[in-house]
Amino acid sequence: MFAGVTISLTSVILADIVGIDKLSNAFGMCNFVGGVSVFAGPPVAGKRIPSQTCHNRRALILRTF
């Protein structure tokens, strides 16, 4: 639902931060960081969730996703 806002504002925000001349480099770096987080996120979450010892409803819901 909010992906359209993120995609449309990325170019505007990056252009304000780095300028138009370095916009392609900023897009590349943004995609690189996003890719690293996609690969690193699930193992980190997998290590974190089993280490929690509480067995409440919230923990069980998080484990199903």
UniProtKB/TrEMBL annotation:
<dbReference type="InterPro" id="IPR036259">
    <property type="entry name" value="MFS_trans_sf"/>
</dbReference>
<feature type="signal peptide">
    <location>
        <begin position="1"/>
        <end position="15"/>
    </location>
</feature>
<keyword id="KW-0732">Signal</keyword>
<protein>
    <recommendedName>
        <fullName>Major facilitator superfamily (MFS) profile domain-containing protein</fullName>
    </recommendedName>
</protein>
